[in-house]
Specification:
The chain is an alpha+beta fold and 522 residues long. It is built from 15 helices and 19 strands. It is 34% helix and 19% strand.
Length: 522
C-alpha cells in the first residue's frame, strides 16, 4: 500500500453534553438513541433504539437478522453485565451440507472454501439470529422505556426508506455480485439491476411492517410467534435447514463481564468467545513493558505492536485457525447523565451478510455459518445447534473506583481488537481525551505478523517498528478500510461532562447529544 494516496487529512470533533450522548456509525441511528435519552430513557434504552435504527440506515452491517454482544454498566449498582446474543447453527446441520472445494478461495474466517460458497452466501449460510432477543433482554432488565417505544425511531426510518448517498452506493456496489442472486435483496438494493445513484431513495420492503409486528407482539414473536413462522417458511423455501424449533430454543447468555485491570482502570468486556481476552492480554503485556511518558513515542508503539501480536498468536493457537480477512460489523456506545454506559457490537458478518432478504419480513439475514470450520475436529467446527464461539467483537467499558470512564468498541473484523486496545491504552496510558484518541493515528496488528502503520505516526516510529516487524504503511481511508471503525463515549467523573465520537474516516458516523435532539425538536 502506498503511503500517499489521498492528499487531505480529516479530523472529527466529538460531541459533548451534560445529559447524554450516543455515538454510532451513522448519526441518524445515534439521534434515535439520543431521542430516547431526551424522553427519559437511560443508556440502555438509547443503545437499543440506536441498534434497531442502524438496520434502516446501515443495513449492510447489522440488523434484526444479526448477532453480537452488549456490555452494560449500571452506575447505581456499580456492576457490569454482558448479553451474548451470538448466532446458533440449525440443529439439523451437517458437515456434509458444505463439501470442500479446493478451487474456492478460503472464507473470510480463514477456513477452506466450500462448494458454491454455500457457507458464506445464500440461505444455507444463515444461523438463528440473536439480535432481537438479546437487545430486548437488555432492555427488559436494565432499560426504563417500553419495547414498542424504543422501536419507534427504527419504524419511522424504515417507513421513510434508505436515503442513499455516495457511501451507500459504494457499500451496495461492493456486494452487488452477491446481492443480485437473491430476488428480495436485488429488488431493494439494485433498482433497475444496478447500485443506486447517490440521493436515490430505496424502499426497505416489508421491514417497517415487521418492526411494527415486533412492537405490537413483542420480541418473542420472532422466536415462536407469527413472525417466526413466516421467517421459517421463507428460510425453508430458500434451502435453509433452520426450523421453528431452532428459533424457539434460542437463548441469550447473560453473565458478568470479563474484566482486566490496567493501571488502576478496570476494563469490562464481553466474554471468552469474544475479542475481550485478547484485549486484556495485550493490555497486560503493555503494562508490564511500558512506562508511559508525557505522550506516545516510537518506543511505545513498538510495545503496543508486540503486545497485540502476542495476543493474536495466543488466540490463533486456542482456536486452531488462521485469521479473518474481512467482515462488516457495527459498533455503538451510549452514556447517560447518571453515568450508565453501554458498549454494543453486532453484525451480519459479511457486508450484507448472506445477501438474502426474506421476502415476507424484509429482514436482511446474516451469513454466520461462515464463523464455523467446515472440517470436523476443530474448536470452531460445525456441529448441530452449536453457538458461535470465536469472534473479534470487543465492546468494552472502562471504570475507575466504581465510576464509568469510557465505552468503546469498533467494527472491522480482525482490526477490531487492535483498534479497541490502542484507543483504551492511549486514554489510560497517556490521558488522551476520547476525541484525541479517536483522531490519533494508529497501528494495526492482525495476526499475520505484519504491522500496518498510519504514515501520520512519523518516520521515526515507522523505522522503530520496521526493525522488529514487516511494516505496511497505509493511510486511514474510507475505502479500502485497513483500520477498524471505532465509536465511543466518555465521562469526566469530576465534572460530569459526557462526550461521544466516531472514527474520522466514517463519513456518516458521529455522536449525537440530548441537547442536539432537543434543539432540533425546538
Amino acid at each position: 500500500m502506498v503511503a500517499s494516496i489521498e492528499n487531505w487529512s480529516v479530523n472529527k470533533a466529538a460531541v459533548s453534553s451534560q445529559q447524554g450522548v450516543v455515538a454510532a456509525q451513522h448519526t441518524a441511528a445515534a439521534a434515535a438513541g439520543a431521542t430516547m435519552l431526551a424522553a427519559g430513557g437511560n443508556a440502555v434504552d438509547a443503545a437499543v433504539a440506536a441498534a434497531f435504527a442502524l438496520s434502516c440506515v446501515e443495513p449492510w452491517m447489522c440488523g434484526p437478522g444479526g448477532s453480537g454482544y452488549m456490555v452494560v454498566w449500571n452506575a447505581a449498582e456499580k456492576r457490569s453485565r454482558v448479553y451474548d446474543f451470538q448466532g446458533v447453527l440449525a440443529n439439523n446441520i451437517s458437515n456434509s451440507d458444505y463439501p470442500l472445494d479446493a478451487d474456492v478461495p478460503m472464507s473470510i474466517m480463514g477456513f477452506p472454501g466450500v462448494v458454491d460458497n454455500l457457507n458464506t452466501v445464500g440461505y444455507k449460510s444463515i444461523t438463528v439470529p440473536g439480535a432481537v432477543k438479546g437487545l430486548s433482554a437488555a432492555l427488559a432488565n436494565s432499560g426504563k422505556l417500553a419495547f414498542d417505544r424504543v422501536l419507534q425511531p427504527a419504524i419511522d426510518l424504515a417507513e421513510a426508506g434508505l436515503a442513499g448517498n455516495w457511501f451507500t452506493t459504494l457499500q451496495i456496489a461492493l456486494a452487488a455480485k452477491d446481492l443480485q442472486v437473491d430476488a428480495g435483496a436485488s429488488r431493494i438494493y439494485l433498482p433497475d439491476g444496478a447500485p443506486p445513484q447517490p440521493e436515490q431513495l430505496l424502499s426497505l420492503g416489508a421491514l417497517a411492517n415487521t418492526l411494527k409486528i415486533l412492537a405490537e407482539e413483542g420480541p418473542d414473536s420472532m422466536y415462536g410467534g407469527t413472525l417466526c413462522e413466516t421467517m421459517v417458511a421463507d428460510l425453508k423455501a430458500g434451502g435453509s435447514q433452520l426450523d421453528v424449533q431452532d428459533f424457539a430454543r434460542y437463548k441469550v447468555i447473560e453473565s458478568e463481564s470479563l474484566q482486566g485491570l490496567h493501571r488502576g482502570v478496570t476494563l469490562h468486556t464481553a466474554g471468552p468467545t469474544s475479542g475481550g481476552p485478547r484485549l486484556i492480554e495485550a493490555l497486560q503485556e503493555i503494562a508490564e513493558n511500558l512506562q508511559p511518558g508525557v505522550a506516545p513515542d516510537p518506543a511505545s508503539w513498538l510495545v503496543y505492536a508486540q503486545a497485540l501480536d502476542k495476543a493474536w498468536q495466543s488466540h490463533n493457537a486456542r482456536i486452531g485457525r488462521t485469521t479473518e480477512t474481512g467482515g462488516c460489523t457495527s459498533h455503538l456506545s451510549a452514556v447517560d447523565g447518571d453515568g450508565n454506559m453501554v458498549a454494543l457490537t453486532y453484525t451480519l458478518l459479511n457486508r450484507f451478510g448472506s445477501c438474502v432478504v426474506l421476502p415476507q419480513s424484509g429482514i436482511l439475514m446474516n451469513n454466520s455459518v461462515a464463523y464455523f470450520d467446515p472440517r470436523p475436529g476443530y474448536p470452531t467446527s460445525m456441529a448441530p445447534g452449536r453457538r458461535i464461539n470465536a469472534s473479534n467483537m470487543c465492546p468494552t467499558i472502562a471504570t475507575r473506583n466504581g465510576e464509568s470512564l469510557f465505552a468503546v468498541g469498533a467494527s472491522g473484523a480482525n482490526y477490531i481488537v487492535p483498534c479497541t486496545t490502542v484507543i483504551a491504552a492511549l486514554m489510560v496510558d497517556y490521558g488522551l481525551t476520547l476525541e484525541e484518541a479517536l483522531n490519533h493515528p494508529r497501528i494495526d496488528v492482525s495476526g499475520n505478523g505484519v504491522v500496518t502503520v498510519d504514515p501520520r505516526l512519523g518516520g521515526e516510529a515507522i523505522d522503530v517498528l520496521a526493525a522488529d516487524f514487516p511494516v505496511e504503511v497505509a493511510q486511514l481511508l474510507v475505502f479500502p478500510k485497513l483500520y477498524a471503525c471505532p465509536s465511543g463515549v466518555s465521562r469526566d467523573s469530576e465534572t460530569g461532562l459526557l462526550c461521544g465520537g466516531n472514527d474520522p474516516s466514517q463519513p456518516v458516523g458521529g455522536g449525537v447529544s440530548v441537547e442536539m435532539v432537543e434543539n432540533d425538536c425546538g
